């Protein structure tokens, strides 16, 4: 039966994910309305980015609901990998959007002219976006660190990236406004499309980072240096002669560790069990909440 702490953790994760969905809905609608009315590609690019954030937030919400389901006879390591799969899907969505943004920006830079109106609403929507994104990213990062949730961390990364891309769009709109007031600086009218290109580059960078981490989790790649750290901690325990066959895999926020040790084969079963408990405690001091399996093997002292 789940403890009160587990129930509270699940509730906090679901609440954080749901609040992201609500925030993404509001930002996406606001940006689409202002972007269409002003003709700003930078704002429309941000609207597309926010729309993907909305899809990602919805996927994260359902992924978290599924990932907390306890292990069963069909999923012996639990359902945590659902978080990693959702992150991979989010990455693909981001890359598809970047293709459209880059294509449209190049068209506006070199092949066609689209009038962009830098109104007060253009700046208001981006300022609101930055404020909301900053608030949501802080809440999500806090929940991700507390509950070791890769899905929430990916969602937080989306919102924090929006802060920088929104700043770029504001810069582009300022350039357009300057061009309106000073006809001699007409070249600045292209700044909006250039800002959209910069947004696309930012999104691609984030997508590559997120995709690389997701693939590593799905192929059970252990964090760099963790193997040596575990081996050092285990072999430092009195009674352990050697530590080998170390296996590490993540399932969502949960990490599973298997180790084999060589120890005195003449000791009692009780002492061998006490030794494995000490090893588990030592490893968990370095990696809290780790699920550890220690397999003792007898060794001939001679």
Low-pLDDT windows of residues: none
The gross shape turns out to be: elongated
Helix content: 55-70%
Rounded to the nearest angstrom, the distance between the terminal CA atoms is 47 Å
The number of domains is 2
CATH class bucket of the largest domain: Mainly Alpha
In round numbers, the mean pLDDT is 78
CATH architecture of the largest domain: Up-down Bundle
Strand fraction: 5-15%
**Which topology of the largest domain does CATH recognise?**
Alpha-lytic protease prodomain-like
Quick description:
The chain is mainly α.
What is this structure's SSE topology?
Blueprint lengths: L3 H35 L2 H27 L13 H31 L8 H28 L2 H32 L9 H28 L7 H10 L6 E10 L2 E11 L4 H18 L4 E9 L3
Parallel strand pairs: 2-3
Antiparallel strand pairs: 1-2
Helix pairs in contact: 1-2, 1-4, 2-3, 2-5, 2-6, 3-6, 4-5, 5-6
């Amino acid at each position: 039966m789940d403890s009160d702490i587990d129930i509270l953790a699940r509730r906090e994760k679901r609440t954080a994910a749901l609040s992201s969905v609500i925030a993404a809905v509001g930002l996406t609608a606001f940006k689409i309305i202002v972007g269409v009315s002003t003709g700003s590609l930078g704002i429309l690019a941000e609207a597309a980015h926010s729309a993907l954030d909305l899809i990602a937030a919805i996927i994260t919400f359902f992924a978290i609901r599924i990932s907390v389901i306890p292990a069963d006879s069909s999923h012996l390591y639990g359902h945590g990998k659902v978080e990693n799969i959702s992150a991979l899907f989010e990455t693909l969505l981001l890359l598809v959007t970047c293709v459209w943004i880059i294509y449209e920006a190049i068209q506006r830079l070199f092949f066609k002219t689209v009038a962009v109106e830098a109104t007060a609403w253009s700046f208001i929507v981006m300022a609101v976006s930055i404020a909301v994104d900053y608030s949501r990213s802080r809440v999500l990062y806090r929940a991700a660190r507390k509950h070791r949730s890769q899905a929430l961390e990916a969602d937080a990364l989306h919102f924090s990236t929006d802060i920088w891309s929104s700043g770029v769009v504001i810069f582009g709109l300022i350039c357009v406004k300057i061009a309106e007031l000073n006809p001699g600086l007409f070249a600045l009218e292209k700044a909006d499309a250039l800002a959209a290109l910069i947004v696309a580059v930012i999104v691609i960078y984030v997508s590559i980072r997120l995709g690389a981490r997701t693939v590593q989790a799905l192929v059970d790649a252990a964090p760099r240096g963790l193997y040596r750290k575990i081996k050092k901690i285990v072999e430092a325990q009195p009674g352990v002669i050697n530590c080998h066959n170390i296996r590490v895999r993540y399932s969502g926020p949960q990490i599973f560790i298997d180790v084999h040790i060589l120890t005195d084969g003449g000791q009692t079963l009780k002492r061998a069990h006490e030794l494995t408990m000490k090893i588990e405690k030592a490893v968990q001091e370095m990696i809290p909440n780790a699920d550890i399996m220690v397999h003792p093997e007898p060794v001939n002292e001679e």
